[in-house]
Structures are given as C-alpha cells and as structure tokens.
Amino acid sequence: MKKIIPILVLLLFLSTVFCQEDQEVVIPKEAIRFRVVPSSNLEQDQQLKMKVKNQVQLELHDLLKNTNQVKEVRTTLSNNLMKIENTVEETLKEQESEQDFSVRYGLNYFPEKTYRGVTYKEGYYESLVVTLGEGKGDNWWCVLFPPLCLLEGEETGKNEVEYKSFVKELIDRFF
Predict the structure, then answer these.
(1) In the beta sheet, which residues pair with residue 107?
(2) Beta carbons within 8 Å of 14's beta carbon, 6+ residues apart
(3) Is the terminal CB of the chain with fewer CB neighbours within 10 Å at N or C?
(4) Other beta carbons less than 10 A from residue 110's beta carbon
(5) Which helix (H) or strand (E) holds 118?
(6) What is the pTM of this model?
(7) What pLDDT is recorded for position 151?
(8) Burial class (CB in 10 A: 0-12, 13-18, 19+), 40
(9) Measuring CA to CA, how many Å separate 158 from each of 58, 70, 144, 161?
(10) What H or E segment, with its residue span, contains residue 37?
C-alpha cells in the first residue's frame, strides 16, 4: 500500500505535465533588455563582443544588485552611462582593439529572435545597447530587468546549469 500512493501521485503529476499545452514565455512589459552588437561575424569580432559583454555584465551586476524596482534600474542606468562607457573603453583597450563603439539607453530596435523555442517579436524595446564598430554582427542579448541575465554575473567557475528531475527524485526516494 505504501508504494501505491507514491505511484498514484507520480501518475497524477505526469498526466498534469503532459496534458498542459506549451505556454510561451513572455518578457514582461516593463522589462529592460541588454544587448551587445559586434562589428561583424568574424571570429575575432564575436570574441570581442563576448569580452565586452562579460565586463559590462559584471559592471551592471555591481550597479544593480540592490535594485528591485524598474524605476530604480532606470535611474541607475541613466546615472551611470559614463561608467558603462568607461568599462567598454577599458575592455577594448585591454583587447588591443581600436574599434569605435556606442552605448545607448532608451528605446532601441531589436530584430525578431527565436531563443529556446520562443520567438520574440521585432520592435523597439527599452534597453541598454552596446554597439561595437559597424554593428553588423550577430548580437547577444538578455533581459536586464527583471534581472534574468545578471544572475549569470554571480556565477563563478560553473559552465553548466544543473537540472534536477522531480520525477527521478520521487522514484529514488520511494523505490
């Protein structure tokens, strides 16, 4: 009898999971995005994009770690654009790159993007955009607020996300 109850719970859970329709992940209306656009798709430009992204992301994490309201984030970004520009400039110098760049905060154009099976529509979105050189390469972007991409800035030494299976944990626990 003890084993029948967990099996029934497991079956109920599985039927609930598999009977639900796929739900599209929606970025909140008040979201603020962060985007880095490289000069081109050449390997060196893509690598430079990631170096700039990493440094700016660390800077943003420091600036925004104590903010939890969209108004606070807007004010902090507006008040620290020079600091962000300095971070980009220093990163480019460290990489011995003489590319020009721009840092813009406000409504910026985003092309349509499909990520993890979800298509995000093109349009103008509130965002912080760093453009390197000609800005014609494949970009990197994430949601800055709510702080979905800043969580990555806290991780150190981990390249992979660890996933756990609720079903496997139930089976391991009871069998």
Answers:
(1) 126
(2) 167
(3) N
(4) 17
(5) strand 118-120
(6) 0.71
(7) 52
(8) middle
(9) 15, 29, 20, 8
(10) strand 32-37
